[in-house]
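User: I'm writing a tutorial on reading structure tokens. Could you give me a worked example: one chain, its sequence, then its tokens, then a sentence or two explaining what the tokens reveal?
Assistant: Sure. Here is the example chain.
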Amino acid sequence: MRKPWSVLPMALVCCLWSCTTRQVVDDYQGSTAQRLTTYSIDAVMDKLPDDPLSLLADKQIHLECAFPEAIPAIDYARRRLEMELIQRYDCAFVASPEDADLLLRFFFNSIGTDVDYAGFRTPEFALPGMGGMAGIDLLTLDMFHGVSECYYYILDRERKVLAKSDRIKAVIRSDKVGLPIISFPVTHLK
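And here are its predicted structure tokens:
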């Protein structure tokens, strides 16, 4: 006959999960997701190095931005990039490559948000009237990040590459610790 206390560790393991997950968020719903995305784009623009971008000073530039799929944030990123370069280098942007002194091809690898969870949480269960599954945080770290990453090429009129950048990445965080009754922020968006 088994002793009741010998089943306790197994019951505890079944009731508590220790997990880490990552979820990529595809849309820009909600202010926090929008701010994380735009702040990460702004942070990438702040990291743009003067060398070799100083080649753009006082020149007519044709800008092309690329991303694997059409998303709303690309237009924002392009306009933000144009303003950054105008402010820094007093360059002008032209619609036609034939009218340009230089071509700037900007490639975005990432623009968006992701969510990470780590810690201890009860298994999800259905609550009547809630319309979905719920779990209780026992001790979790919930991480919501805005991520932007890019690189670029500068070309002359003959399409000869004058410069290529390294990858430039920025991560903006909004993290919180979750407990059964309360959660509190670890990092704040400003």
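What the tokens reveal: Confidence is low (pLDDT under 50) at residues 11-26. The first strand starts at residue 17 and ends at 25.
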